[in-house]
Write a structure and sequence with these properties.
Helix content: 55-70%
Radius of gyration: 41 Å
Order of helices and strands: HHHHHHHHHH
Oligomer: single chain
Number of strands: 0
Distance between the termini: 135 Å
Structural class: mainly alpha
Length: about 230
């Protein structure tokens, strides 16, 4: 009881706190609009708040893909087999998308080629019966420049066969015909023409009129040259 009374006496001796009122003069500063305008024109003080461009569907796909791969390899719980299976699946998807975007026939990758809708076959009898000028005109009228290049190549083979420079057989390859040409210079030129033809026809690459005219000129020069 005595201790409690003593504590109350000690507390009563502390002076009461006095709230002081700030009597200082407040200085109102005005902003110089001309100075602000001058600063705003300086390069260091230009802050363009440009909203980020929205990602395209293709960009969102790649972001999702890389995020999926990253999560798979960061996940220590998943076994290595799952990671490799997932990675293999991703590779297959990417290859499939690339083939679709390029427009390449997937059979080309396996050494096969899809059936081609053409009005004639590459046989000994037909190649001598084809009216190449007529068929070439029809191909150009329909803007089928790939078929036109094919006709130019078959016509060249026919001319070489007629000149006894090559021996035409249905089961021979184009490279076999190249090797049959005895003249070295003519063989090299025909080898280049064969490469162009195979690139355009079997590779199924699109060519325009200008490209065809360039290829056509090369065939004309070859066919007009003397052995």
């Amino acid at each position: 009881m005595t201790g409690l009374c003593f504590g109350q006496k000690e507390l009563s001796k502390k002076p009461a706190k006095v709230v002081k009122i700030d009597s200082g003069k407040v200085e109102i500063r005005k902003i110089d609009t001309a100075e602000v305008s001058a600063y705003s024109k300086q390069r260091d003080f230009i802050y363009d708040d440009v909203p980020p461009e929205s990602l395209s569907l293709w960009d969102r796909f790649w972001n999702w893909l890389w995020d999926l791969i990253g999560r798979a390899f960061r996940n220590k719980v998943s076994g290595s087999l799952i990671k490799y299976v997932l990675l293999g699946l991703v590779i297959v998807i990417v290859i499939f998308l690339v083939i679709k975007l390029v427009g390449l026939d997937y059979k080309v990758l396996t050494g096969q080629s899809k059936a081609l809708d053409i009005p004639f076959e590459e046989t000994l009898e037909n190649i001598h019966e084809i009216n190449f000028d007529e068929q070439l005109e029809l191909a150009l009228q329909s803007y089928n420049y790939r078929l036109a290049v094919r006709l130019l190549y078959l016509k060249t083979l026919k001319q070489l066969s007629d000149q006894k420079i090559i021996s035409w057989l249905p089961d021979k390859t184009n490279r076999a015909y190249v090797s049959e040409i005895q003249d070295v210079q003519k063989r090299e030129v025909f080898s280049d023409l064969t490469l162009q033809f195979e690139y355009i026809w079997y590779g199924e690459f699109f060519i325009d009129k200008n490209t065809f005219e360039s290829v056509h000129q090369s065939f004309q020069q070859f066919n007009s040259s003397k052995v």
